[in-house]
Amino acid sequence: MDLSTTIAGVRFPSCLMNAAGARCVTREELEALGRSHAGAIVTKSMTVEPRQGNPEPRYHGFPGGSINSMGLPNLGYRAYAQLIPELRKFKKPVMASIAGFSDEDFVTIAKAINESRPDLVEVNLSCPNIPGEPQIGYDANSSERLLKRVRKVVSVPMGVKLPPYFDPAHQEKMVRVLERVGVDFLSLINSVGNGLVVDPDKECVVIKPKGGFGGLGGALIKPVALANVRAFWKLFGGRLPIIGTGGVVTGADAFEHLLCGASAVQIGTTLVEEGLGTFERLEKELAAVLEKKGYASPSACRGALREL
Ligand code: SIN
Hints:
CATH superfamily: Aldolase class I
Number of strands: 16
CATH class: Alpha Beta
Strand order of the largest sheet: 3-16-15-10-9-8-7-4
Order of helices and strands: EEEHEEEHEHEHEHEEEEEHEHEHH
Oligomer: single chain
Strand content: 15-25%
Bound molecules: succinic acid
């Protein structure tokens, strides 16, 4: 089955791709994504300067999910700006994820990265793991100020990666911001920030940064991810493409994201745990679900979730 999808005019050969952060920091990892069945190459969220990230251990997988506090380890935007033109040889979209510690950072990176011509730019407003730095996406005014500046320097399709929201009022407020800015797609959601996982045997936290607090991912966050995909899909009347991220372990999970309104799906924890073979497995599983249900393509079931 053809699992391709189109987002903001960009065709993806498969609707399944990596989430920013999962196996996408180094040249080797990005090239491996290029050779894999991933439908795109999404870079790690890049900052102005290269970063080692937070002290280890900073990732912990457990049955049901993961907790991480990576702290944005990345090569710095200059390295990615050089790499992006080379990654085009894999003939699949390259999505540059950008982050920063000030509006100025975002603008500097966005300008330079836009010149390296990725197919899309994803503006990460939702990293929960930098000690002392809030998640920008929880502050509508700061988000609007920043996004308006970034929008001016990005000419390729520009999307925003948002944190999970737990109240419709917050989603509605962010929709008004995004409408005023004019974005081309959304990535929903980043990890559920500042969770805490405890090892009762050792009577200890499982990651070092921030006293053990970190972003939760994997199966346990799927209902939160689906709720955000569905809420934003409805608030935008199905007009804004959404990439669903969170809790995709099987093809059936990807199908649920599509039903809620996603045009594509990103894989984080499962990709980290299972490796690049994830894409081929999920492709087969998703195709089997769609065929069994009588859908001819991922777009045929987009948003088709029934309400009671
Ligand atoms: C990290 O590097 O800490 C994760 C990035 C993110 O959640 O945006």
